[in-house]
């Protein structure tokens, strides 16, 4: 620290410039300090603490705090319900991400080309996203899915037990999630669409391009970066699914919808085994880190390829 | 010593009324009384129609004891409640008093999360061990230490619609439901009621749905009637008698198949169906009594049908516990015991909610005996089927929910009784193999 304080007096403009380029100035450090403190106190420290907990048998009262090494991890890897909930998370992620990205794009294209009462279309697609998860869950649980008087069965004249049959429960939860969250992707796509320069389309029109050609050769390529962003955000959001499933099915029936976060919650808060729950959360943490790193690499390649 | 806050009786009553409104909405109530010495913070989960009775009792206590303010806080029943108690107890900043299911006592790590009951203070307010139903009093102890004060037992009971049952010819000359002593009599009774209802399922209970425990409750009423047990005495191995377990499950499957019960009702729908006279029988805990009376359903109640031998019925018991506090204010503590004593001694008022008092003198009171239909099933108190004393048992425990999930498809016919039993055993095995988060030496 002392050397950096002494340095500016003798520093040549070139040296300062080099330092700025490397990202080290004392003013900069001062500016980020508040954030750094919060980051360490609320993120780094709990992360380390959680890692320690995952290697202990600590319970919800904070007692029985014996170090058990990797016992919890060994138990988790041998626990069929852990794998089942992990698999449910993967199924949910795949089933939800695909329609959420495609429908988001589809709705955005639709609204972009519908030139009249645009606010109404925007509102109707984005509206559900504004609702809290509890409202959405209760709405679908109490009004749309009930087997005897629900909106779907009432309209179709069927009597499916949407949320209480293991073969349809996951699909039903995904359907609710898509309805609820597609608005966010839709909005990102709409913003991206509106930023594509109009003259590109005019030039293409002069060259005699059809609507399909324009979509394929101009719109979709120029939406590439947005799509990449949406896919990452969506994957991370879907991997972390909890609220609507907890509220609508509680993970049932027969574990068919229980995501890994709920499994950690159940083990920790209902089963009182905080140590084991931490180990389960760290397994999910590792998976999220891997997915994020893979995405990052994929992006870098694509960015290098395009430049 | 700080002076108690100056509140007039009128403002207190007004406050309790506001409290009643807020508790009905199920939210926490911040009371702006500052650091009152005599404010007893009381948590409970009585949100069914018994919550109305509890609120009346709290208000009545406030009237008699203007120097004590009971801050009533109604929390959602089930898993989240026990999570909150555990976390509050762990932090040592708990409410002064909380209701609790006795069967959960073994699972909560009483030493860490609950404080022992001060037997001397209990005697000071006039409560003695001899006043309580002995098996229930016994269950309030862990390793010889008293951790809970029993309040009631709430067994599975059979509600019946007197109009429909009368039409179906199921009532005796005294207007009461004719008893059923075996499986054939039960089925015959349900078939007659089905006919009277024009072919609609005459029986409802919470057969499916989010976190449903109905299938567990029904099974754990039927199965113990034949003498079946769940776990070995030391709670380490499964002791299910397959033949007896399957006999109960087959009856449950038959009820669904024959259209004698509606396998597609969840908790809310089952109560609504019975309330509106769309079904003749409701199998449920005894706590819906007040609501049914208020909605003028023509109904009465009786013990859960005896089918396989004894008249056992699944039950748990409400009790009072002292969640762990680092520093307990002696004044507040005394007030807390005063409040507990008031509630327990007025168990006859509490019985209006449907529960059978655990306080023996209350069972003899003319007020209680005059309660109809609440006193009809009081004899069940000696035949209640309580959970095994293991850490994963008790109301809304993982065991209840998982076995409920295992048996729910048996009733709807999506799973055979054998498959249901196998699923239940798999759940039990998982629970047995997981380490107890509160090992014995912790207490």
UniProtKB/TrEMBL annotation, chain A:
Xref: PROSITE patterns: ABC_TM1
Listed name of the protein: Carbohydrate ABC transporter membrane protein 1 (CUT1 family)
Species name: Nonomuraea polychroma
Family to which the UniProt record says this protein belongs: Belongs to the binding-protein-dependent transport system permease family.
Lipid bilayer topology: Multi-pass membrane protein
Domain of life: Bacteria
TM regions (residue ranges): 29-48, 90-111, 123-145, 169-191, 274-294
Domain ABC transmembrane type-1: 86-295
Pfam families per UniProt: BPD_transp_1
Localisation: Cell membrane
GO cellular component: plasma membrane
Keyword Signal in record: no
Assigned keywords, A-Z: Cell membrane, Membrane, Transmembrane, Transmembrane helix, Transport
A GO biological-process term: transmembrane transport
Primary site of residence: membrane
Automatic annotation (TrEMBL), chain B:
Protein name: Carbohydrate ABC transporter substrate-binding protein (CUT1 family)
Pfam families per UniProt: SBP_bac_8
InterPro entries documented for this protein: Bact_solute-bd_prot1, SBP, TAT_signal
């Amino acid at each position: 620290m002392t050397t950096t304080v002494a340095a500016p007096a003798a520093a040549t403009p070139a040296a300062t410039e080099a330092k700025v380029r490397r990202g080290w100035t004392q003013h900069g450090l001062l500016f980020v300090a508040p954030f750094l403190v919060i980051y360490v106190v609320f993120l780094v420290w709990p992360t380390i603490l959680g890692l320690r907990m995952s290697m202990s048998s600590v319970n919800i009262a904070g007692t029985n705090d014996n170090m058990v090494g990797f016992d919890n991890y060994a138990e988790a890897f041998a626990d069929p319900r852990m794998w089942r909930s992990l698999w449910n998370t993967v199924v949910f992620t795949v089933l939800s991400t695909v329609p959420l990205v495609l429908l988001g794009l589809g709705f955005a294209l639709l609204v972009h080309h519908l030139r009249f009462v645009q606010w109404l279309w925007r509102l109707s697609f984005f509206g559900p996203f504004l609702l809290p998860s509890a409202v959405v869950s209760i709405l679908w649980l109490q009004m749309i899915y009930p087997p005897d008087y629900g909106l779907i069965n009432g309209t179709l004249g069927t009597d499916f037990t949407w949320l209480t049959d293991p073969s349809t429960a996951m699909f039903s939860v995904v359907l609710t999630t898509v309805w609820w969250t597609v608005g966010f992707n839709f909005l990102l796509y709409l913003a991206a669409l509106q930023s594509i320069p109009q003259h590109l389309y005019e030039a293409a029109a002069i060259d005699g391009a059809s609507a399909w050609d324009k979509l394929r050769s101009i719109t979709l390529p120029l939406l590439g970066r947005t799509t990449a962003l949406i896919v990452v955000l969506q994957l991370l959001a879907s991997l972390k699914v909890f609220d609507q499933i907890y509220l609508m099915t509680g993970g049932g029936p027969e574990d068919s919808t229980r995501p890994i976060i709920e499994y950690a919650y159940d083990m920790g808060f209902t089963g009182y085994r905080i140590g084991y729950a931490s180990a389960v959360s760290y397994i999910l943490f590792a998976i999220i880190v891997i997915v994020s790193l893979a995405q990052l690499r994929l992006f870098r390649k694509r960015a290098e390829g395009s430049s | 010593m700080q002076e108690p806050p100056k509140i007039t009786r009128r403002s207190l009553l007004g406050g309790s009324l506001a409290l009643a409104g807020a508790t009905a909405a199920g939210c926490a109530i911040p009371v702006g009384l500052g650091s009152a010495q005599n404010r007893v913070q009381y948590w409970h989960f009585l949100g069914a129609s018994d919550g109305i009775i509890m609120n009346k009792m709290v208000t009545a206590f406030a009237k008699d004891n203007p120097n004590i303010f009971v801050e009533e806080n109604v929390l959602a029943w089930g898993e989240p409640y026990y999570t909150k108690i555990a976390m509050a107890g762990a932090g040592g900043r708990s409410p002064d008093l909380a209701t609790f299911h006795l069967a959960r006592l073994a699972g909560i790590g009483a030493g860490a999360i609950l404080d022992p009951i001060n037997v001397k203070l209990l005697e000071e307010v006039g409560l003695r061990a001899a006043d309580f139903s002995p098996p229930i009093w016994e269950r309030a102890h862990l390793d010889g230490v008293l951790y809970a004060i029993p309040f009631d037992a709430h067994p599975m009971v059979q509600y019946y619609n007197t109009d429909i049952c009368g039409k179906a010819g199921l009532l005796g000359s005294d207007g009461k439901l004719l008893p059923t002593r075996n499986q054939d009599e039960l089925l015959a009774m349900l078939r007659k009621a089905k006919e009277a209802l024009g072919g609609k399922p005459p029986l409802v209970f919470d057969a499916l749905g989010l976190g449903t425990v109905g299938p567990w409750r029904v099974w754990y009423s039927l199965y113990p009637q034949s003498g079946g047990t769940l776990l070995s005495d030391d709670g380490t191995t499964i002791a299910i008698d397959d033949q007896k377990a399957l006999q109960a499950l087959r009856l449950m499957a038959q009820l669904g198949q024959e259209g004698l019960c509606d396998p597609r009702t969840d908790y809310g729908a089952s109560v609504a169906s019975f309330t509106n006279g769309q079904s003749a029988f409701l199998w449920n805990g005894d706590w819906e009594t007040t609501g049914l009376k208020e909605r003028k359903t023509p109904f009465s109640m009786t013990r859960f049908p005896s089918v396989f031998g004894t008249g056992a019925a699944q039950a748990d018991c409400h009790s009072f516990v002292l969640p762990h506090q680092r520093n307990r204010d002696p004044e507040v503590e005394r007030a807390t015991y005063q409040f507990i004593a008031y509630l327990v001694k007025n168990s006859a008022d509490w019985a209006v909610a449907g529960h059978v008092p655990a306080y023996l003198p209350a069972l003899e009171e003319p007020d209680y005996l005059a309660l109809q239909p609440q006193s009809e099933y009081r004899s069940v108190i000696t035949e209640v089927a309580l959970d095994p004393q293991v850490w994963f048992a008790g109301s809304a425990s993982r065991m209840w929910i998982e076995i409920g999930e295992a048996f729910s498809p048996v009733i709807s016919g999506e799973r055979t009784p054998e498959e249901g039993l196998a699923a239940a055993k798999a759940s039990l095995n998982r629970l047995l193999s997981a380490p107890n988060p509160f090992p014995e030496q912790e207490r």
